[in-house]
Amino acid sequence: MFTVNHKNLRLSFNDFHNLSDNEMPQYGEYCLLELKTGDYTAGEWLPSGEGHTTAGKFIRGTADTVGSEDVARWHSLDRYDLTESLETEGVNWINIGREEEEGERNVQFEGFRSFADRKRPKEEQFCLLIMKNGRLAAGRWNKWRHEAGGAFIYSSALASHSSDKVWAWTALSTDELFAGELERENEKKREKRLNRKPIADPELFKYGTDINTYYEKALEKLRGEFNWATAAMMKKKTPVWQIAPLHGKYVFGQISRNYYDDSDIVTPWTEGSTADEFIDFLCGYTRGAVEHSNPEERFKYGTDINVYLEKAFENVKKDYRWLDKKMLRKTWQYDIKMVDGDLEFVRRYWDEEEYSVYDAESAEQFIEWVEHDYQSVALRENKTVASYEPHFGHIELHGWNLERYVFCRMRSGDYMVSVTAGDRVAGGSRDFFITPYCFEAKTYEEFLDRYLEIVPDYSFGLGKKELLPDKALKEFLGY
Q1: pLDDT tens per residue across span 272-319
Q2: Strands 10-13 and 93-96
Q3: Is pLDDT at 344 greater than 50 in this prediction?
Q4: Which of 229, 308, 337, 466 could make an SS bond with 222 (beta carbons 3.0 to 4.6 A apart)?
Q5: What is residue 243's DSSP assignment?
Q6: How far apart are the C-alpha atoms of 448 and 383, rounded to whole Å?
Q7: Full-model pTM
Q8: Using the 8-state DSSP alphabet, how is residue 98 labeled?
Q9: Other Cβ atoms within 10 Å of 99 Cβ, number
Q10: Domain ranges in the chain?
């Protein structure tokens, strides 16, 4: 490993190239840049057009570039390997490039730090890097969210140098991205100071600063219309309201999590100015959740979960004739449990321990949801033995492109169709069981009329116009 002490190290960059003299880097070359403002940054050279002029840009990351018109001079980072110098004891000065006697083209960097010393840059700070392989690089620091370490973003598509590949780093000049991050950090500090002793508006918080008090008062009003109402039912309407400090004052607010730094984002209630107005608002906000939580509707068949599961199984069995209960052992498991004082339908996957609430509004809706789960299991357990894919050209579906449309004959002799659609960055697939009712049709045309009620052409791309002339498909389906 290197023997040089990074704390004492200075890098001297000599013999910069001037863009004004039409001195250009090679395509894709990563360079240290001196801007016309006197600031220093770095980037990957991408010329405009055919590269016959100095027009172009230096790429620092995704949507992060410096135009050549803003650059005074550049110096290559790609062409140098410092390994030999860094393995020589006592070295504290390394020249990069040909040294000029007058020193007018010389720029020095020092103040190097190391992750080994538990030092790291500030978020979004652009840094000059000495890699562990002795090469030079640069990048913008991004901390990993839920684990130690991070990476220096240096090019498009989030190309990065992982922190474990970097031997030492020092900050380059502040830019707009880093300045914005500093301002956000300063704002968070100001907010934290203001919220140490928040003030409560006496009109808005005349019943105190415990949110449960306001839910209880709203509950009293809702019980006049829905005698089964509970606070737990009200809180099914999410996000729930809380009392939180914001800008030095207590507010009624909804709290979400900032994805980038795990901080709280408080969205305040702004539809009134008094406690009673908020209570009335809370009644309206949670009314739907309470209305659809009537225990008499949800548990009309009692509290034995097997009654509901048996109804779902028998309904699915009518069409999915091969389904048996052994197939359901390694899938979703259901129960009726007391959660926060209310009975709830719950479910867990077979190899998990914890149940989660399955918030159905009625017994019929719960049974229907279970049927969907059972149908998926049935299709998964019935292996495909033959398939046929109709020919089709480019088909666009609401911004997505039809990629795959395959009819499958399964081991039981039944049929399904598998449809896949997507765009350049996302996609999805769905399987549809072709019910026996479709095959009760006497003609292929009548079969298609019934089939297209399950897989409509306006949603999935192929309709009667495309499928009716397909003789091979007609034969595959047994007509």
Answers
A1: 999 999 999 999 999 999 999 999 999 999 999 999 999 999 999 999
A2: parallel
A3: yes
A4: 229
A5: E
A6: 24
A7: 0.68
A8: P
A9: 12
A10: 6-176, 211-293, 297-381, 384-476
